[in-house]
Amino acid sequence: MSELTARSERPVPEQLGSAELADRLEGFRVELTGYCYRMLGSAFEAEDAVQETMVRAWRAYERFEHRSSLRSWLYRIATNTCLDALNGRERRARPVEMGPAGGAEPVLGPALGEDVWVEPFPDARALPGSGDPAEEVALRDSVRLAFVAALQHLAPRQRAVLILREVLAWRAAEVAELLGTSVASVNSALQRARATLAAAGDLGATEPLRPGDSRQQELLRRYVSAFESYDLEALTALLREDATLSMPPYALWLQGAPDICSWMLGPGHGCRGSVLVPVAANGSAAFGQYRPAPGGGFEPWALQVVEVRGGRISALNSFLDTARLFPLFGLPADPRRAR
């Protein structure tokens, strides 16, 4: 059992005052948010689900009989909240799942609704610090865009089983109690979920951010330098041959350095002169991108999530919904305020 889990499983007094109960519930917010984000694939829906969980827990606490830990009880409420939210909904996806890569003359097409995409999420709001570097790398790995997108291929209850069993390391009996089913049913659901993920191929395996990895940090430093100077030759040298560029809310995506560079010199030429401000999203390096504004200065343009595999950049994900995403990541309207 990890130190984080051990702290969370401390016995709960039979009666807590309002302030004490509020503090105890709030102590679970980050890990519950990470759980709901993996379930829902949406930063904003995850935070709404956790808030609803807190409200339900507050209202029902007098009926909580302490037969399980407070943590288990909260996860049961959060799971039911997520299952309710997922009822009848289409799964979220990434542009690489929406159709083939754009060709020699790609067309951006219409912007699609925010409910279509797997959204990025700040690490600090979804990953509780454990003090164990290996555990923190494993947690970052479990919120990668590729993994969260792969989870969306699972039926909701299978999704819950796989996250609880393989990400959070719950025992089968604990998951069975939470879902009100049998251990055999949990094990069967886990097997089916594993098979589905294997077929999905994790939608492009990537590596989580490792702040202590000097080679990975040097790669990211070179990326920032190449992008801000708009040195596409230097940028190309950092990309894998099969690297992708996507720009939600548009379904268009590009693959390969030639097509990516052609886009950046053509329709995307307005990114020349951009400034990047580092943040952390989905266990990966990420940046707030600010483009030069027509009247001078800079304007928010994209939340970039940079995925890495095999020592090179495998995907550039530029989420263009800055009106919602920049406040979520604590990014200011003017990059000079962040530096």
Can you describe this structure?
The chain is an alpha+beta fold and 339 residues long. It folds into 2 domains: 3-203, no CATH class; 214-338, Nuclear Transport Factor 2, Chain: A, CATH 3.10.450. 45% of the residues lie in helices and 14% in strands. It contains 14 helices and 6 strands. Strands 2-1-6-5-4-3 form a 6-stranded mixed β-sheet, sandwiched between helices. β3 and β4 (284-292) form a beta hairpin. The longest helix has 18 residues, at 43-60. The radius of gyration is 21 Å and the shape is globular. Residues 145-197 form the RNA polymerase sigma factor 70 region 4 type domain. Belongs to the sigma-70 factor family. ECF subfamily. Interacts transiently with the RNA polymerase catalytic core formed by RpoA, RpoB, RpoC and RpoZ (2 alpha, 1 beta, 1 beta' and 1 omega subunit) to form the RNA polymerase holoenzyme that can initiate transcription. This is Sigma-70 family RNA polymerase sigma factor. Residues 31-91 form the RNA polymerase sigma-70 region domain.
